[in-house]
Specification:
Blueprint lengths: L22 H89 L4 E9 L4 H11 L2 H14 L9 E8 L2 H13 L3 E12 L2 E10 L4
């Protein structure tokens, strides 16, 4: 029968060797503890930040609720200001146009011979003869112009052109007075070109139709 072996250290306590410490195990335990501490600390910081953000969001909502009526009033005032500025600009444009047409009518009345009178004024758009002739030579003929015009109209509708001419319709006692009136129109600063379109005998004299192209309008 095998006997039991006992290890007896007979040295004094001061001379006895201390028990060897397991460094690897100690490091593992320390790392786990630190990791748990970091996780718990991060979670705590996250919870605190979450509640702070929630409180800030609530405060921001309250501020927005108080600011929204003011912002709505400011936006309404801005829209009213834009509309007012547009109305004022249109009013100034009307005043300028009214003054220009008023001056034009005064000048026309000034250059009219005594035996000539107008029965109608028409503001319209007319294509100048030179431009129309140039476009006709480029397109090649009426049929081709019609086809190309239809195709372009099918692709994109043309915008309504601005009026560029004034048509004068009236009567005169003599042909010479019509010539004097045309000469006076050419001297006015409003017109680029003046041409006589129609002239013939009428019931109350010699009837005529004159087209005067405005400057600055193509």
């Amino acid at each position: 029968m095998t006997g039991l072996n006992y290890k007896v250290n007979l040295l004094p306590p001061k001379l006895q060797r201390e028990e060897i410490v397991d460094v690897h195990r100690l490091l593992t335990i320390t790392g786990v503890v630190l990791l748990i501490a970091v996780i718990l600390g991060s979670y705590g910081v996250f919870i605190i930040s979450f509640y702070n953000a929630k409180n800030e969001l609530s405060a921001t909502k309250v501020e927005l609720a108080a600011v929204n009526p003011v912002a709505a009033r400011v936006e309404k005032m801005r829209a009213e200001r834009v509309e007012l500025e547009r109305t004022i600009e249109e009013y100034h444009l009307i005043l300028r146009s009214r003054k220009q047409w008023s001056d034009l009518l005064v000048d026309i009345n000034r250059i009219m011979p005594v035996d000539l009178w107008l029965v109608g004024l028409e503001l319209t758009y007319k294509q100048p003869e030179q431009k129309a002739a140039g476009q006709g030579s480029q397109t090649g003929g009426p049929a081709q112009r019609q086809v190309s015009g239809n195709s372009s109209a099918a692709k994109q509708p043309e915008a309504v052109p601005r009026p560029n001419a004034v048509i004068f319709k009236g009567s005169s006692r003599t042909v010479a007075s019509i010539g004097v009136f045309i000469n006076g129109l050419t001297r006015l600063p409003y017109f680029l070109e003046v041409r006589l379109d129609k002239v013939g005998e009428g019931t109350d004299g010699i009837q005529f139709e004159i087209t005067a192209f405005l400057k600055g309008v193509s």
